[in-house]
């Protein structure tokens, strides 16, 4: 349901009320359920909110890529064997995606793999091995 609410917020023309989100989802969810989901997403920093009179208007905190990353984290968090899930994910990556992931991880940790950070590092085995 969180993903549906986030998707609805991404489709909104601007900040959206909980009632707008409820209507956009077809009205099948109770207003209080939508508010609970929005509050949980706010606690997880997936959405932001601004006061609008006595209520709030809601905005997604991330773009579509951020939404996809949030979904991926949720799947990973729901599994009991994180190591196995990550190993399986990495082993299924294409060589190009593997290198992109390696480059992004190096940037995130401040490492530099040399003058050509986009090329493979012969000193390291592939991530999937």
Automatic annotation (TrEMBL):
The record's section on InterPro entries has: BlaI_family (IPR005650), WH-like_DNA-bd_sf (IPR036388), WH_DNA-bd_sf (IPR036390)
**Keyword Transcription regulation among record annotations:** yes
Sorted keywords for this record are: DNA-binding, Transcription, Transcription regulation
Q: Does the keyword RNA-binding apply?
A: no
Q: Which domain of life is it from?
A: Bacteria
Q: Where is this region: Disordered?
A: 106-129
Family from the record: Belongs to the BlaI transcriptional regulatory family.
Know the name of this protein? BlaI/MecI/CopY family transcriptional regulator
């Amino acid at each position: 349901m969180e993903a549906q609410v986030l998707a609805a917020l991404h489709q909104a023309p601007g900040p959206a009320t909980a009632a707008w989100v409820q209507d956009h989802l077809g009205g099948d969810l109770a207003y209080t359920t939508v508010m609970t989901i929005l509050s949980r997403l706010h606690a997880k920093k997936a959405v932001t909110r601004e006061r609008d009179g006595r209520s709030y208007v809601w905005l997604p905190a991330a773009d579509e890529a951020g939404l996809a990353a949030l979904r991926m984290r949720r799947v990973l968090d729901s599994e009991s064997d994180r190591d196995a899930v990550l190993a399986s994910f990495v082993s299924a990556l294409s060589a190009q995606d593997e290198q992109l992931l390696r480059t992004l991880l190096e940037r995130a940790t401040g490492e530099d793999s040399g003058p050509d950070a986009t090329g493979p590092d012969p000193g390291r085995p592939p991530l999937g091995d």
